[in-house]
Every structure is written in structure tokens, then in C-alpha cells.
Amino acid sequence: MKKNYLILFVLTSLVFFNCSKDKGPVDDQQTAENISFTNDVQPVFDQYCISCHPASGDLDLTASHSYNQLVNVNASGYQAKRVVPGDPENSVLYKKIDGSGTFGSNMPLGGSLSAAQILLIKQWIEEGAPNN
After folding, report:
1. Burial, 78: exposed, middle or buried (Cβ in 10 Å; 0-12, 13-18, 19+)?
2. Are 73 and 83 in contact (CB under 8 A)?
3. Which of 21, 27, 74, 127 is 20 to 30 Å apart from 15, CA to CA?
4. Rounded mean pLDDT of the chain?
5. Residue 16: C-alpha distances to residues 11, 22, 24, 69 (Å)
6. What is the C-alpha separation between 34 and 93, in angstroms, rounded?
7. 3 lies in a domain?
8. By residue range, what is the domain housing residue 85?
9. Would residue 15 count as lying in a domain?
10. Average pLDDT, integer, range 98-106
11. How many structural domains compose the chain?
């Protein structure tokens, strides 16, 4: 009988200690920490943006130029910066893709990014818009 209680105690302890380490479900903002500009954000530009924002244009979103064209750069036609590190709500890039119409037409023209892509760019800006 003591052996059964010992086994029950051990099993209960294992379950308790394993569950106590479980943080439970995490929200979307916690799952995409440390977003990489090169690996996560630039591919969105490559797929949806460079057809209208090529190397020869006013806003060059090609891989070798996009970061320097966006972060802490004044947006043409607006009294705001394209990307304000840590502040997506005051970043023209984010407001152009979030569907708010704050800075004119939604981008990309004639379409939209997925909710996950919009969140990814928002989180990258919230993380300080690092060039990583």
C-alpha cells in the first residue's frame, strides 16, 4: 500500500512541476519576438512592394536599399517619418498597410497584406526597427 502512495506522490509531483513551468498559451505579440528585418520584413517587400517601389523610384524597397529608405526618413508628401522606431502608430509605413487610411491609400495598391504580415511589420517597428 505504501508503494502505491509513493508512486502516486511521484507522479503527482512530476505533473505539478511540469505544469508549473508551463506559461500557458502565449499571445501573438509574444510569439514573434526578435523579428529580423532581413529574414522576415524584407521578404514581404520583395513579394508585395518592389514592383511599385523599385530601385529606380523615389522609395526604393529593394533589399540593398529599403532599410535606409525607411527608418527615420521623412515620408514624401507627409509631415511624418516612414518608420519611427518603437512607434508604429506614427510610422507612415505601418499606417499605409493597416487599412486605416491615415496616410492616404492603403498599400499595396489594389490589395492588402495578410493580418500576420501586418502584425509582423508592426512588431518589428515596436522592437525598435532594428537592421538585423
Report:
1. middle
2. yes
3. 27
4. 83
5. 9, 10, 14, 52
6. 19
7. no
8. 34-126
9. no
10. 94
11. 1
Q: Do residues 40 and 120 touch, judged by C-beta distance below 8 A?
A: yes
| Cα diameter, the chain | 82
Say what the pTM is. Answer: 0.75
* Cell matching residue 128: 525598435
In this prediction, residue 23 has a pLDDT band, given cuts at 50, 70 and 90, of very low
Residue whose grid cell is 520583395:
46
**Residue 22, pLDDT above cutoff 50:** no
SS3 122: helix
Question: Could you tell me if 82 and 103 are in contact, meaning their C-beta atoms sit under 8 angstroms apart?
Answer: no
Euclidean distance between CA atoms 108 and 105, whole angstroms: 9
Contact 81/65 with Cβ under 8 angstroms? no
